[in-house]
Amino acid sequence: MEPKISLKDVRKAFGPKKVLDGVTLDIAPKESVVVIGGSGTGKSVLLKCILGILLADSGEIKVDGQDVTHVAATDRDAVNRKFGMLFQGSALFDSLPVWENVAFGLLQREHLSRAEAKDRAIATLAKVGLAADVAVLSPSELSGGMQKRVGLARAIAGEPEIIFFDEPTTGLDPIMADVINDLIISCAKEQGITALSITHDMHSARKIADRICMLYEGKLIWAGPAADIDKSGNPYVEQFVHGAAEGPIKMQVRR
Amino acid sequence: MQFLSLIGGVVLTFLGHLGRLTIFAGTALSHCLRPPFYWRRIGSQMLDIGYFSLPVVGLTAIFSGMVLALQSYTGFARFSAGSETAVANVVVVSLTRELGPVLAGLMVAGRIGASMAAEIGTMRVTEQIDALATLSTNPFKYLVVPRLIAGLLMLPVLVLVADIIGVFGGFLVSIYKLGFNAASYINNSYDFMQAFDVISGLIKASAFGFVIALMGCYNGYYSKGGAQGVGAATTNAVVSSSILILTLNYIITELFFGT
User: Fold this and answer.
1) Which residues on neighbouring strands pair with residue A166, listed in sequence order?
2) Touching check for B73 and chain A: CB below 8 Å?
3) What is the ipTM metric for this complex?
4) The whole model's pTM is what?
5) pLDDT by residue (tens digit) across A92-129?
6) What range does the domain containing A103 cover?
7) Could you tell me if residue B21 is inside a domain?
């Protein structure tokens, strides 16, 4: 089966700093892959390279077999319609009410009337467990957890084939984090959407992943089924999973 | 040697900014001509720049007109009496050619340029601009083009209003403070004023409006590093557009009136 997303030896450097140093990864259709790794290891850059927000220096990125490595996000409308993305800070447009945020992509792509778009937005908000009266609020009036849910609604409103989750549970309390995990499972897994998530929340990773990869110093050092994460046999992965300060990964802490 | 490398570094940074700004302006202009257009966004920006700047620009204009009348009267009194015609002439020419566009431009740079840089800068650091790209929306078309068009079109309108209010300010001082005859003051103003005085001012205004929006958007678009970065972008937008306004003002004056 042709992979939904295929990365081959993707490299990206900012000045002398190599952020992605040859990443190779195939994601099958309807698979949920979680990339784990410490802060600053290039997880977000990986997502942005696939989306074309950043352009990879070299390597090859294919979506449904189509090479998009050197096409910027602004020039690849057809490809980006397949994607939805939940940003780390939700990245809601604070100048627009909630429903216009959710319906933003619909209004751009499908030329719906504003009334129809609002109905679609309210229906999508219901999928993430938000009532219709939230629709007219401004994003700044919402709690962090609700903003995440609106962000998720915005990501799934365009009925994407692929969704990216950038640290979906970071900054949420454990209960809300689990609510978001459940929503990711119900929105992505059960509707057959391909999902690529990045996180350092191991609880979340175990719950939403079919397959887990670990990114360290710009390379994928381990990949395997989520169930095998505790018997990876890789000292780096073990240290990360157990959250141990001592181990092969040295945090750059200035003393 | 360290001194030389410091100079070199500054020059290189400057040239880098200049190149990036040129590419930014070129990209933005090319998007101004290609659909889709976000009419609602253009409309709301025109409202913000044109309508909501009226109080600031109007106050600036009326006091400039008043002080011009007072200063030119006391100045002319030093070497000739009966300077009624001269006062009316000075007020109308200097307001329409220079003070109207420049002062309105500077006030709008402070009001609008700053808010553009802050808004777009915040959108950049909170990933809202990246989010636009993932939602099939070109950030240039959605954020930059409406602001450029609104600046280009609304500044002349503002300056026209400023011209009228400013001349009225001069009229008020001349009549109620200096005791001129109202009818002959209006007559004098009208006789001296040439259409090109006003038109050249409006052309300047358009250029200033474009520069204000361009510097606001450019600095916001490339801001980074959270609150501090957005603050720096805001400052840079206002300072650079103010300097560019004054520079452009000389260049355009030279083109129109330099012999």
Assistant:
1) A198
2) no
3) 0.84
4) 0.87
5) 998 899 999 999 888 887 778 888 889 989 988 888 88
6) 87-159
7) no
